[in-house]
Amino acid sequence: MESFYTREDSYPSTAITEPSRASFVSGPATAGVWDPRFQHAGPPSALLARQMMQHHPREGFRLADIHVDILGPVPVAGLEVRTELIRGGRSMDLLQATAFSADHPDRPVLQARAWRILRAPEDYPRSIGRRDAGAPAVLPDDLPAGGRGLSAIAEAHLGGYTEAVEWRYMEGAPTELGPAFVWGRVWIPLVSGEEIAPWERLLVLADSAGGLSLPVDTSRYRFINCDLHVALDRDPEGEWIRMNAQSIATPGHGGIVNNELADVHGVLGTGLQTMVAAHLG
């Protein structure tokens, strides 16, 4: 596997207020664990972030927050991404990117909005709240080489995405149900010929939080996300991302997945997924 996507065509806008379009070929590595015909939501979420970051980037600004809505299964097929500015300002931009499958070019399958904000001054007062300070006590090099890490899913497809990432567990295990405390890294670029960017690397992994921390037997119950929301107070550094993921389900109501995100320097933000909790059939 060389990359998740290969760039096909690009139609950049001439001004920040004008939409841009780009098309990509989806590679085998995008295939998800539930059904090899459809993509794991991590890679296309990262692709939407890439397009928003590249939409007329502004000096001194950074992507701070992204909310992805999964509008339907994303086929392992060509994707067109349309990116636009929703609201611009002196200190913040609200961007939107929408993915359309080549199989159904008029029906969106994934949509994301992100805030691109002015970077805080270097002398701004530091505040960490109740967060652990400093680098994590256990680093990925302290752990044995890991593997696919999503085999608790009944009849999981163990090709595609699962071969493009590595997981190293501190708590939990691939075959266990329940919370997971795990380091992950991505083996391949998001787009062919490009080095994967920090935000892209994190988003490829973050959508797996619900699968890593499954609370139920997936041969009897559904527990799948309809969105992914990630907010970071600083940019990730290095190839490893630590995820402290826990799934919560309340009978008669629904479910969520909370995910504390960190790199080798410490905690950097949080992820949240809204889960559909139901019986199969």
TrEMBL record:
InterPro entries: ACOT8-like_C, Acyl-CoA_hotdog, TesB_ACOT8-like_N. Residues 32-116 form the Acyl-CoA thioesterase-like N-terminal HotDog domain. Transmembrane segments: none annotated. It comes from the Bacteria. Residues 154-276 form the Acyl-CoA thioesterase-like C-terminal domain. This is Thioesterase family protein.
